[in-house]
Amino acid sequence: MKQFPYMIFLPWLWWRESERIQ
C-alpha cells in the first residue's frame, strides 16, 4: 500500500507537464 500514492502522483505530474507544453 506504500506505493499507492504514486498511482495518483505520477499521472498528475505527467498531466501537469503536458498542460504546460500546450
Would you write up a description of this structure?
It is a single chain. The protein has 22 residues and is mainly α. The chain contains one helix and no strands. It has one helix at residues 4-21. The longest helix has 18 residues, at 4-21. The radius of gyration is 10 Å and the shape is rod-shaped. The termini are far apart. The mean pLDDT is 82.
Output mean pLDDT. Answer: 82
Helix content: over 70%
Largest sheet: none
Count of runs of 4 or more consecutive helical residues: 1
In total, how many beta strands? 0
Structural class: mainly alpha
Which spans of ≥5 residues are poorly predicted at pLDDT below 50?
none
Please indicate the percent range of residues in DSSP E strands (runs of 2 or more).
under 5%
Element order, helices and strands?
H
Report how far apart the termini are: 34 Å
How would you sum up the global shape? rod-shaped
Task: Tell me which oligomeric state these chains represent.
Answer: single chain
Radius of gyration: 10 Å
